[in-house]
Amino acid sequence: MYQAQAYSAAGATAPLAATSISRREPTERDVQIEILFCGICHSDLHAVRDEWNEFMPTIYPIVPGHEIVGRVTNVGSTVKKFKPGDLVGVGCLVDSDGTCHECEADLEQFCPNRILTYNSPDRHSGSVTYGGYSESVVVDERFVLRVPENFDLAAAAPLLCAGITTYSPLRHWGVTKGKKVGVVGLGGLGHMGVKIANALGAHVVVFTTSPNKTEDALRLGAHEVVVSRNADEMAKHAETFDFILDTVSAQHDINSYLDLLARDGNITLVGAPPEGLNVKAFSLIGGRRSLSGSPIGGLRETQEMLDFCGEHDITADVEVIPIQKINEAYDRLSNSDVKYRFSIDMASLKSQ
Amino acid sequence: MYQAQAYSAAGATAPLAATSISRREPTERDVQIEILFCGICHSDLHAVRDEWNEFMPTIYPIVPGHEIVGRVTNVGSTVKKFKPGDLVGVGCLVDSDGTCHECEADLEQFCPNRILTYNSPDRHSGSVTYGGYSESVVVDERFVLRVPENFDLAAAAPLLCAGITTYSPLRHWGVTKGKKVGVVGLGGLGHMGVKIANALGAHVVVFTTSPNKTEDALRLGAHEVVVSRNADEMAKHAETFDFILDTVSAQHDINSYLDLLARDGNITLVGAPPEGLNVKAFSLIGGRRSLSGSPIGGLRETQEMLDFCGEHDITADVEVIPIQKINEAYDRLSNSDVKYRFSIDMASLKSQ
């Protein structure tokens, strides 16, 4: 074991603060990574504040962070895919059993024995996994991704969660050229959804409650912007959408979006309103529509997404912060005051 | 025009009563049918009582009935598929534009200009369509179905709505041998779902709130019965179902069923609880699950269902009544007091 600098929270109401954590020395299958940037995902905030206690109680201290970009510093003896100096990424997963039918289908996100990058049992240490708000991390090579060298690294970090979380359902539901695709909500997830849906060739419509986001939505790749509070504007799009990506994690009227789907259209939720959504049966029955959810993606698909984003020059719009501003960033994130993702410059850890 | 005996309701609180209605003489494309049996669908009751006013206000007087089996008595000059004496059926649809992409895809149930068998604008008369609680009906040959001769006709009538409403989603979501399929609710729709899913080769599990339905569920073709109020029994089936057909039209906890779906599993609603269902996002996101709805089926698929049921000797379990007992039957249907569908012997119309 070795000591690594990190930021952790000691409890649901404690601020994140500098600490030192134990990391394992790389085993023969491990890749050791110097973390350069780590995106701040809304899940980090939910986990730190134990807001998902019902589904996934937080074990303290917690070191969040699952949008990791860094350089390989060391590799185990059997590691073939990576060498020191390689630019790599780590997302939400750091382990899985590798033998179940989900793993065999390259869908490790559904493996019953998957290990999340933080707040999961750590099979090596016997403790808990610690995430990317740290100077380094050690990860099984199966869960390390190759990051295209042409990226702005601060802006690439959010691809590891926000990117794959939006790319995966867009691909799963067959979004291609000629499809009409909606994106509900223009935040960390939504702005990635717009960029990726546009690059996939779809006609992209952004739904927002804030008319002042129109210009930005168009700049990000939307072809149309609909203010969702305007019933007349909504009605114009009735029964026309092939797919809608719903990134909103607050309560909202899902039926008004279901009614916009064409026959066999689908809405996939990637945000999770805690109280649940009221769904009218007739909104589904009328057009044989469906409402789904989707969590992150498997490793093969995450690599595919990174390569796709590399080819199309897609990264997140980020505000780069030093780690010392993390608590302020969380407060701003709570108030949706960021365009569109924070990315922590991990070099700042060394300057304290 | 000619006069036909029928039963109609004059208002939302009026009983159904004997009347005489005008039917058109067959045009060159029409088939005239002597109605032998007409099933009583829960939709008939909703329509008569104007309980779906929000979606489809009832125009009075209403002659319900869209589970029609009868014999051809006359055909128009260009009709090729049918001749007098043929055994035929009519379901929920009697017309559509025939030119839209839904019609071209044999999905007339989604045609924006579809005409329902009752309570829809009648293009011929300029009035309203009248359904199967009548001695005869005149229907465009495109909307007339061939009924296998081996059927018990009283028991075959409900196939025209309850049969296709359950067959269509079972087929659409790929139910075949080896799939694990749930059926929620054992009423008119549910008991057809069980028979059809069994005949498709699936492992069929019935969910019911009434333990006393167990024996009947097994007789109908279920391989297992789960009492849905028993949380332990439910938990045993977590994450194992490929597909669940939900036939319940009262409020119920849909999340407890979503949690039983395997990855990419689907629940399709064919019942319509009026207040909507509370759906937790995590129930969908966890296994990339989906919740859908499905309305009846197109003509091609309805014929396929009739042929399938003919081959597998599947009809509804019915209680045959004379038309004079219709109001009593509605009251019993309201109380779920029928196993499992009423079928009206239309010969009774002549005995009054």
What features would you describe in this structure?
The structure is a homodimer of 352-residue chains. Chain A has helices at residues 42-48, 101-104, 153-156, 162-172, 188-199, 214-220, 231-236, 254-258, 281-285, 299-311, 326-334, and strands at 2-9, 16-23, 30-40, 68-75, 87-90, 93-95, 115-116, 136-140, 145-146, 180-184, 203-208, 224-227, 241-246, 261-269, 277-279, 290-293, 318-322, 341-345. Chain A is α/β, with parallel strands linked by helices and 352 residues long. The model of chain A has no long low-confidence stretch (mean pLDDT 96). The two termini of chain A are 23 Å apart. Chain A is globular. In chain A, α4 (162-172) crosses α5 (188-199) and α4 (162-172) crosses α10 (299-311). In chain A, strands 3, 4, 5, 8, 9, 17 and 18 form a 7-stranded mixed beta sheet that branches. A 6-stranded parallel beta sheet of chain A has the order 12-11-10-13-14-16, with helices on one face. A two-stranded antiparallel ribbon of chain A has the order 1-2. Chain A has 2 domains: 2-161 and 318-351, Alpha-Beta Complex (Quinone Oxidoreductase, Chain A, domain 1); 163-293, NAD(P)-binding Rossmann-like Domain (Rossmann fold, 3-Layer(aba) Sandwich), CATH 3.40.50. The A-B interface holds A 55, 102, 107, 110, 172, 255, 263, 266, 269-273, 276-295 and B 55, 102, 107, 110, 172, 255, 263, 266, 269-273, 276-295. β15 of chain A pairs antiparallel with β15 (277-279) of chain B, so a sheet runs across the interface.
